[in-house]
Amino acid sequence: MAHEEGERNDFRAVLGNDTAIKASWGNKLPFPDGTIVMRIAWSYGPSEENNRIFVRAQSLVPGLPTGSYPQFMVKNSKKYAANLPLRRRSKPDRNNF
User: What residues pair up with 2 in beta bridges, in sequence order?
Assistant: First the structure.
């Protein structure tokens, strides 16, 4: 899960099937056929209850899904031959990719 401040004020998670996970950790680019990746995002807001417990404003909790919820990417080189290959950064950041 990631949180980035700025124009995209949301919490995000990227999920993948077994093929996506194995390819990601194995640094296999482009991803093989059968790879499915899903991005989900939620708005967020402060948690007054948690902030009272921590005695300062520091806690955020997920809210409603954002308008771009969810996004799927499917790697099928025959069905989507005209599209670019499904790729991710060449140097993966295991904590936020």
Answer: 12
